[in-house]
């Protein structure tokens, strides 16, 4: 065998021995920013193409969104036909903010789905307790990957935002943790959301007693930890998290892309890559 074929053979063997860098599952959390706010140059009609482009560049398998109005969801899948989305709004219909879950139709299918409210009566649609001024809820689904039939749960939520809502956020965290504890232990769970509080909070402590925080545990982090930037591009708070159990986080990225000084939302989206 001549020298060149020997080199080629050695390189091919070395390449085959390297572990695959492709993630089994790409998960994004993305606060859309409601289309009803008085955002002027940052209104939805000015950024809906950029919003879709941001998703297209990262190409996540599944996305938990917050503050989503039906028109925003429909605009997005019109631009990204490989995705679809589902979920009721926080009043149980489709006229207000949704915790809409988007997923790639070519790689995932929904086995079952549902929702519950963060209150003393979680099964009561639009129920409000704990001092909340709006209903708060969780949208969820059991997904199956079409390539190998592996399953996982995805939960998506949006906690109250006021300083005085810390007790409501803590109660919400405990309710979600209790709900997750009843799921089959052998099925992975991923929780996405805008939690409107930092990782030093009781809310985070309650959830990470049984879940891991992808930002803290993934061996590779990219971008700033902070996510809320109010359309300035300068984030000040890490309030958007991806928490999980039963899978391995391989990398996490805060997405700071913009175009002509405009951002797709007032939050940076976060994407985590997982291996089963």
TrEMBL record:
Alphabetized, the UniProt keywords read: Endonuclease, Hydrolase, Nuclease, Signal
Q: Signal peptide location in the record?
A: 1-22
Gene3D superfamilies per record? Endonuclease/exonuclease/phosphatase
Q: GO molecular function, one example?
A: endonuclease activity
User: Any keyword Glycosyltransferase?
Assistant: no
Classification via InterPro entries: CCR4/nocturin_mRNA_transcr (IPR050410), Endo/exonu/phosph_ase_sf (IPR036691), Endo/exonuclease/phosphatase (IPR005135)
Q: Which residues form the Endonuclease/exonuclease/phosphatase domain?
A: 28-267
Q: Does the keyword Lipid biosynthesis apply?
A: no
User: What is the protein's name according to its record?
Assistant: Endonuclease/exonuclease/phosphatase family metal-dependent hydrolase
- Please name the source species: Luteibacter jiangsuensis
What lineage, starting at the top, does this entry show? Bacteria, Pseudomonadati, Pseudomonadota, Gammaproteobacteria, Lysobacterales
